[in-house]
Amino acid sequence: MRPGRGPSRAPDGGRRSRSRRRRRPRPRRRRSRRRGLSAGWTRRHPASASAPADRGAGSRTTSVSSRLPRNGPGSGCDGEVRDDEPTPRVRQFDLPLPTPPDALRKGPLREGTFTSRLHDPRTAVVIGRWLGAALIVCFVTGLYSHVLQDPPTWLRDHLPTRPAGLYQFTQGLHVGTGIAAIPLLGAKLWTVYPRLFEWPPARSVRHALERLGILLLVASMLLELFTGLLNTLQWYVWPFPFRQTHFWLAWIALGGLLLHLAVKAPEIAAHWRRVRPGLTERRAYLTTVTLSVLAVTAVTAGQSVPWLRRLDLLAPRRPDIGPQGLPVNRTAAAAGTAQTPADWRLQVVGPRPYELTMDQLTALEQHDSDLPIACVEGWSASARWTGVRIRDLVARAGAPSTARLRITSLETDGAYGVTEMESAYARDPLTLLALRVNGEVLHADHGYPARIIAPGRPGVLQTKWVHRIEVIA
């Protein structure tokens, strides 16, 4: 009889029963599938990786990770690199750079130089939203203007001509948002400029590259906005072609902006919504920025928006000032066309070429079109134009309605002395070879003896002083 057991129990059945229970094999514990897991997995799931602690006094509580082979930091059982472990190439970007000596930390680099609470992320995010919206609208409308002036082959037959004032609207919006973006960019830079003087200037290679990207973004945006502003004034102080440079600068600025948003996305998301009542100083600052943007827009948008013309104090053009009540960008004297040749004839070149004198041209059926001239500088003005439909002149030359045209001006020195007209404009019934405006014969500065006028087309392509129309396709 075993010690500790009472004699009153049955000598056989009880012991056999207990013996059978003792000898009954315990259910075999299922082997954990985690044995083959990497050390990185067990670190991320410590509660699951460790053995249960309530198996009894004799239970082994060794964790799975302790049984894994150690092939080096961050390796699994086979020595593979952990998925969450940065590769050596990535780690190189996070290597700390040498800190400059403290003796160089002078002026704005000193700690505590900037004490204003307005240099905070929340203010930067709010202004950044406004600036981003203005830049996106400016980019899209500018891209549309570029496509109209230099359309890709697949789009030539599908350029929009309705509504007739579409380009008037988009280009006015382009210039307006571009001007509004200037004070917004200034406010944004004032908010974040203390970060330019943070110490150390570059903590790691990654941080240095990030700061170089911000430098590229700010430089391209400043150059883009100010060259665009000078273009509205027709003041070209640079040796490079404006339109091509403006186009590629826009793409560089857009790329820099998207990269900046990707890097700063966590910070932007954290301060996108206001989580506590805003500072009185911040509200006052944002109100000042808003009023500044509205004021700049109001005193310049009158060149595009008729009901704001009374406030048109700083706009480059007054749309109601000029010969015959229309503004002029390039005069006949500047183009060398002040004296029209006495033997002027309109040449129409096609399968059946012909020429027309002014008397013969005015004897053809005349049509009226109420269309705006919308210039790339942002100003626009509407007038009633009278002349011969381009599609009638082309049909008389035996060309199909899908023909593309080349328009040649008497102007000898100018970037737009020769232009091309896509078939979408050539076949439109509102497109005219205009001979009169508002009931009067064209003034020399407006293109006498004849000029092109078409719906939804940039003003630089509304060729003046026309003397030749050629079918090219």
UniProtKB/TrEMBL annotation:
UniProt-listed InterPro entries: Di-haem_cyt_TM, OxRdtase_Mopterin-bd_dom, OxRdtase_Mopterin-bd_sf
Pfam families assigned to the protein according to its UniProt record, in alphabetical order: Oxidored_molyb
UniProt KW Transmembrane helix keyword: yes
Residues forming coiled coils: none
Compositionally skewed regions (Basic residues) per UniProt: 16-46
SUPFAM superfamilies per record: Oxidoreductase molybdopterin-binding domain, Transmembrane di-heme cytochromes
Signal peptide, first to last residue: none
Comp. bias intervals (Polar residues): 59-68
Transmembrane segments: 126-147, 167-191, 212-233, 245-263, 284-308
GO cellular component, as recorded: membrane
Annotated region described as Disordered, given as residue ranges: 1-115
Protein name, entry field: Molybdopterin-dependent oxidoreductase
